[in-house]
Amino acid sequence: MRESSLMMLHYAAAVVLLVTGSIHLMKNNIPGMEIHGPLYLVNMLIFVSALMYHAMNGVRVILIELMPKRSRAISYIILVLGIIIYLYIANLVIALVR
């Protein structure tokens, strides 16, 4: 994928984080706002997905700036590490929300 496409996804993930994070904060801090079941689970999984992409892409960009000759290896390592971390966190979210 081209770098410009990855950065557009990075910016889109930031917007998704704002929306889903706001829903999460409102659900937990506004009395009487009840969101339960699959709708809240989907919101949290989208939140975790956007958070993981945004964080891992940020780390990837920083590492590529530091070591530009290793960009392909860095990208693959971050991808594999991101998938492993995402699966662990998604499993945790599913267990906690249910």
UniProtKB/TrEMBL annotation:
Entries under SUPFAM superfamilies matching the protein: Fumarate reductase respiratory complex transmembrane subunits
Domain of life per record: Archaea
GO-annotated cellular components: membrane
Ranges that cross the membrane: 6-26, 38-56, 76-97
Key word Transmembrane helix present: yes
InterPro entries found in the cross-reference section: SQR/QFR_C/D
Keyword Lyase applies: no
Alphabetically ordered keywords of this record: Membrane, Transmembrane, Transmembrane helix
GO molecular function: metal ion binding
Protein name, as recorded: Succinate dehydrogenase
Species name: Candidatus Methanodesulfokora washburnensis
Lineage: Archaea, Thermoproteota, Candidatus Korarchaeia, Candidatus Korarchaeia incertae sedis, Candidatus Methanodesulfokora
